[in-house]
Amino acid sequence: MVLIKLMLNGKHHEERLPLKLARHRKIELEGLGATVYWSERIFI
Predict the structure, then answer these.
(1) 8: Cβ–Cβ under 8 A, 6 or more apart, which residues?
(2) pLDDT, tens digit, for every residue of 1-44?
(3) Which pLDDT does position 4 carry in this prediction?
(4) Which element (helix H / strand E) includes 34?
(5) What is the C-alpha to C-alpha distance for residues 20 and 11, in angstroms, rounded to an integer?
(6) Distance CA 20, CA 7 (A)
(7) Angle, CA 18 vertex, CA 12 and CA 23 arms, to 5°
(8) How far, in Å, CA of 8 to CA of 41, rounded?
């Protein structure tokens, strides 16, 4: 799992995703104008 913290439209958001989806999602969020300020692998 990966925890991604980001800011989009002035609001902070947090997403937890499987590793296989996280890279794609990070690129997608940046394409929407989000600032990804934290991304780390987490263990559940």
Answers:
(1) 29, 32, 33, 34, 35
(2) 999 999 999 999 999 999 999 999 999 999 999 999 999 999 87
(3) 97
(4) none
(5) 25
(6) 22
(7) 70
(8) 21
Which tokens sit at 17?
Answer: 């995703």
pLDDT value of residue 2: 96
CA–CA separation, 36 and 25 (whole Å)? 11
This prediction has a pTM of 0.84
Strands (E), 1-44: 2-8, 11-17, 35-41
- Identify the residue whose tokens are 């947090």: 14
Cα dihedral across residues 37, 41, 43, 44: positive or negative: positive
User: How far is residue 29 CA from its own chain's centroid?
Assistant: 7
